[in-house]
Structure formats: structure tokens, C-alpha cells
Amino acid sequence: MATSVSPEELVITVDVNTAKDLVSSGHLYLDVRTHEEFDKGHLENSIVVPYLFITPQGREKNPQFLEQVLSVCKMEDNIIVGCRSGVRSLEASAELLNAGFKSIKNMEGGYIAWVANGFSVKQPQESV
User: Fold this and answer.
1) Is the Cβ–Cβ distance between 58 and 109 less than 8 Å?
2) What percent of the chain has pLDDT over 90?
3) What residues act catalytically?
4) Backbone angles phi, psi at 25, to 5 degrees
5) Main-chain phi, psi angles of 78, to 5 degrees
6) pLDDT, tens only, 19-39
7) CB atoms inside a 10 Å sphere around CB 96
8) What is the 3-state secondary structure (H, E, C) of the chain?
9) Is the confidence at residue 126, as pLDDT, over 60?
10) Residue 124 has what pLDDT?
11) 33: Cβ–Cβ under 8 A, 6 or more apart, which residues?
């Protein structure tokens, strides 16, 4: 019988400074926040595939998450996964590793930590 491994045991988590260096060196950045969160601000050149949706019933996992990631990333891509604070991205990272992705790292602290460190973000244009 297979033992269940927690996401914390399976996933390599890197701090925001390391994540920034990895993204600068060519790693893809997969943002697993909702489209609404993403539209309020995100890392340059990030790919958005929501891991959860906010519904009237609460948070629900995106049933097409893996399929959608596979449509924009390859199994062998070097990918940094981020969300708002690091919780969803940890779960999403574990799911991607379990699905056979080879090089997945979770960004600790998520978008909040990225912004708190003063790193560059793309924000919506203000209308005049």
C-alpha cells in the first residue's frame, strides 16, 4: 500500500529572492491565483492557470488544472509556482509533481512577498 506524502515533504519551496533569480534566468512563472486576482497585478511574463475558483459554494478546485497547465507548459520545463501567499501554490506544486512534472518549485510567500520586496509587477492601467 502506497504511503501518502504531504505537499510539504514533496515540494521544494524557495524564498522570493531565489524565485526572482530563477525567473530571471529563464524559469517559467506559473500563477495559480484566480483570473480576478491576476488582473489586479502579476509578475511580468507570468502564465495564469487558476488552481481554485471562488464560487457561491466556496473555493472549488479547478477540474481542468492539469490539462490547462499541460496546454501551456511542458513536463520538463523549469517552473516556479506562485499564488497570493504560498498555500495554493504548494498544493498545486505537489499535484504537478505527482502528475510527472520534473522541475517544480513553490515560491514561499507568494505575490504578497514579491510585492513586499519591491520587485517589479505588471498592474492594470488606470483609466483617465
Assistant:
1) no
2) 83
3) 83
4) -90, 5
5) -85, 115
6) 999 999 999 999 999 999 999
7) 26
8) CCCCCCHHHHCEEECHHHHHHHHHCCCEEEECCCHHHHHHCECCCCEECCCEEEECCEEEECCCHHHHHHHHCCCCCEEEEECCCCHHHHHHHHHHHHCCCCEEEEECCHHHHHHHCCCCCECCCCCC
9) no
10) 80
11) 42, 48, 50, 83, 84, 88, 111
Grid cell listed for 105: 518549485
Residue keyed to cell 514579491: 114
pLDDT per residue over 53-94, tens digit each?
988 999 999 999 999 999 999 999 999 999 999 999 999 999
Could you read off the pLDDT of 90-114 as tens digits, one per residue? 999 999 999 999 999 999 999 999 9
Q: 123 vs 41, 74, 98, CA distance in Å? A: 4, 27, 33
Torsion of CA 14, 36, 67, 21, to 10 degrees: -20
Kindly state the cell numbers that stand for 115.
510585492
